[in-house]
Every structure is written in C-alpha cells, then in structure tokens.
Design a protein that fits this description.
The protein is of the alpha+beta class. It is 42% helix and 23% strand. The protein has 16 helices and 15 strands. Helix 5 packs antiparallel against helix 6, helix 5 packs parallel to helix 11 and helix 13 runs antiparallel to helix 14. The radius of gyration is 32 Å and the shape is elongated.
Length: 471
C-alpha cells in the first residue's frame, strides 16, 4: 500500500499510524509511518506549531519520540487501526498551548501483525466553541442537563451531589466523586461522591487522610500533559501507574479499582481539583471522554465561581485585623435570632468586653500597639469560647454569642476570663454577661450584658484609680 500517496492527498497535517497487534488482543508499539508535508512541517517547520520533544521527523518511529506516552492517544489509535472505528475529537492537551481537532480513519491492512489508520490534525491557539459543542445528541443532552442543574440552584452542595450521581450513571461506574485541592494548605477535601448500589468499595472512611495530597500532587505528571487519564483495565493500571506512583497503585488495588477515568478540574490554567469514576464501562470510554471533556469545563467554572463567592462572603463577614466576625455579621445574626427561625427553644448567653486603654496606647505607642492589643484580646476570647461566635462589635468592643449553653457554664467561663485579664500585664478589658433560657429576647439580653460591662469598667477604675489615665 502506498502510504505516502494517501497522506499527500490531504491538505491538513496528516500521517499514517501503525499499531502492533498482540496475540492476546492487546496492542504493542505505535509508530508514525510517514506524513505529508504539512505534518512533517508541523514537526520540523518554523511556523507557529506545537513544540514537540523532537524537531526531526524520522519515518516509522514510535510516537513517543515526539510527545510523552498518552493512553488516550493510544486508545484512539488502537480503536481506529485495529477495531476499524472512525473517530473525531477536539481537545486541549495541557502540554500544548493549542486546541486540536483530530481525526482517525481506519485503513485496511494485509499484514496480520499490524493495523493502520490515517491520523489528521488541525490546531489553533484559540478555542472554537462550535467544535467543543459538536458532540452526539445523547451526550449533548447529558451535558445540558448538568448545566441546567448547576445554573438553577441555590444549594450548591446538594446540586453537586445530584450532578455526581448523574455522571456516575453516565459512566456506569461503581463510584464517582469530585475532590478539591488547596495548594496553599496542601490539603484535599471531598466535595461530593456517589456509590452505585452494587459498589464494593474496599477502603475505610479515612482514605483521604493528610497524606492523600502527596498522592494527588503526582497526578498532573502522570496525566503527562494530556487532558485526562483513562485506565481502561487492570493492564493499564499495572503498566502505567505501578512504575509512576507505587503508593497510589497500591491504594487502587486495595480499593478494588479495575478501571478509572480521571479528569483535572481547571479554570484559567489553575487546578481546582479532580473528578474521577472507578470501574466504569470501558467499552463506552470514547463517549464518556467526549462528554466529560465538556462537562468538566462547566463544572470547573461553577466550582470556581462558588469558591470566589465564598471568599467574598468570608471577607464581608470577618474582621480583617482580629479574625473574628465583624459588626455587619453580628447585626445579621441578631436580626436572624430576633426573627425566630427555630432559635426560640435555645438558651442564650451574651458576653460583652471593652478594652481598657486602647486609645491611650494608640496615642503614645502608635496604632501598631493598639492593633496588637486587639489581636491579643481576640486570641484570649477564642481560647475561652472556642465553640461560640465572637464578634468585633466596635473599635475596642467584642461580643460573644453563646447558644445552647447553661447559665452555670457561662458564668464560670466569665469568672475565669476576668481572672486571666486581671492578671495580664498587656491586655485588660471590662466584662459583662447576661443569660436567658430562651432566645426570644436577644436585644434585652444584649442591653443587660452591655450595662454590666460598663459597670465592671467603672468598678475597675475605682479599684485601680492609678490606671484611670488609660481610659
């Protein structure tokens, strides 16, 4: 067969790929037999093209001469050259700053040891949204269903649980989840997961421990610049994972994983986490890949928006200096409790504190000294009320809100707090507390606590007249 004549008939960059057949039905070496001028120029030329591992085209060389091993590329070559499937894909591998439109067309072969296919590619730096959406109707419906759920929700976590359930069913997988990664704290967190009724997950509930980040951190290198990792069978796991990350390999085997599809969730090049499904329907891997490529695009966007909203929410509710809740959040909480909203049967304790001498400290030693006092005051309050809500109610005033406590517990904490600050040489503050067995009268409880705080302040200066200059 005149392979050169075949590829020369294409204007797009095109080559012939050979796939070695093995007696057990698997494949061996995958080689690029020959290419047309456009394909060879994409490797050797000087125009804007993906930069490969080699800039010299060598006929009949293994494809890994040009880019790292890629199981997705191998699977497409195998399906086309051996199984005689015509395939199309539109992808953005992380190893290249290009979008690729790929075509695989099977060729007849008179050689029992090798199968052949035509591989043709077009690439651009800008994504084509029309190409991204060019998927079959069934997969498009699945993606659209996900988008509608994501955009029409006011309960993000519940919706994500429904979405991951749909994805598990789409993949016919035993398990599916979304895991988020915090690169600053080097921690992983499970956003949502779903098990099939028949799933036999062999690991314990603490599988995502403090060491799991070390495993997940290696996935980007294992994916190797592709846009996902698809392990279709135990052979893929043994051949591809065992030598790259033995700890992860042992974890997969221990968990009974026989196949896995793993997609990174990225937005503007930033890694948010991963979505994966285990023991999926490998026969439908091409359709699953096509659907998840587009679905993860929307998932990453929604997760990023949610995280941004949560950060803004935290910024709007936390006092940036002390790290406790701010006055705006205090007012919202008081309004919520005043309106009822299920708090009526809960007991309520309020503690007000007011720093002694903050203004004088600022005047004499500068605002940095005053800031240190405020931070220390917040630290002390957190140590005594670790499970309660602490607010910076004003410049030098804090409020502690304790729900569901008893009067005895509250008063004991307050007495211990008073003893601590009275003995302190750096921070002292007046303290007042009030208690009500229900939350119906929070405003009156606050008023009473505030009144007692100022009574305590006056008593402090009666007992320590020499310190009154700090008022």
């Amino acid at each position: 067969m005149d392979f050169q004549t075949i590829v020369d008939g294409f204007s797009a960059a095109t080559c012939i790929i050979s796939v070695e057949k093995k007696p057990d039905g698997t494949y061996g070496q995958i080689r690029i037999v020959t290419g047309n001028k456009a394909y060879i120029d994409s490797i050797e030329g000087t125009y804007d093209a993906p930069k490969l591992l080699s800039s010299k085209f060598i006929p009949n060389s293994e494809y890994q001469l040009y880019f790292p091993r890629d199981l997705n590329f191998e699977d497409f070559c195998y399906r086309s050259a051996i199984l005689k499937q015509s395939l199309h894909s539109y992808v953005h591998p992380d190893r290249f700053d290009f979008w690729f439109k790929l075509f695989f067309l099977p060729l007849e072969s008179d050689n029992d040891q090798f199968g052949y296919c035509i591989y043709s590619q077009e690439f651009t730096r800008q994504k084509n949204t029309q190409e991204m959406s060019n998927i079959n109707s069934q997969n498009a419906t699945a993606v659209l269903n996900t988008c509608i759920k994501l955009r029409g929700t006011d309960d993000f976590e519940k919706t994500m649980s429904n979405v991951i359930k749909d994805i598990r069913e789409l993949c016919k997988a035993s398990y599916c989840c979304i895991m988020l990664m915090n690169t600053t704290d080097r921690t992983c967190s499970l956003l949502c997961q779903y098990f099939a009724e028949y799933a036999d997950f062999h690991t314990n509930d603490n599988w995502m421990d403090e060491h799991f980040y070390d495993i997940a951190e290696t996935w980007e290198d294992i994916i190797g610049g592709s846009n996902c990792l698809i392990l279709r069978n135990k052979t893929d796991i043994d051949d591809f994972i065992k030598e790259k990350n033995r700890v992860w390999y042992d974890s997969l085997i221990l968990s009974g994983v026989e196949s896995m599809v793993l997609f990174p969730l990225k937005i503007n090049g930033n890694l948010l986490g991963y979505i994966w499904a285990t023991n999926f329907d490998a026969a439908d891997s091409v359709s699953i890949k096509e659907t998840l490529e587009l679905t993860t695009f929307f998932l990453a966007s929604e997760i990023s928006n949610h995280q941004l909203f949560e950060r803004f929410k935290i910024m709007s509710s936390i006092d940036s200096l002390t790290g406790v809740l701010n006055r705006n959040e205090m007012n919202n909480r008081v309004d919520e409790i005043s309106a009822g909203n299920g708090y009526e049967k809960k007991s309520l304790g309020i503690v007000f504190t007011d720093l002694n001498g903050l203004k004088k400290a600022n005047d004499i030693n500068g605002h940095l000294a005053g800031d240190i006092m405020l931070k220390e005051a917040a630290k002390i309050l957190r140590s005594f009320f670790p499970d309660d809500e602490i607010y910076r109610a004003g410049g030098d005033e804090f409020m502690v809100l304790s729900l569901g406590t008893t009067k005895e517990v509250l008063e004991k904490k307050v007495e211990e707090l008073k003893a601590t600050v009275e003995a302190s040489e750096t921070v002292t503050f007046a303290i007042g507390c009030s208690y009500d067995p229900s939350s119906r009268n929070i405003l009156s409880v606050m008023t009473n606590a505030d009144k007692k705080m100022y009574e305590n302040k006056e008593l402090f200066y009666v007992e320590h007249p020499e310190k009154k200059r700090w008022n």
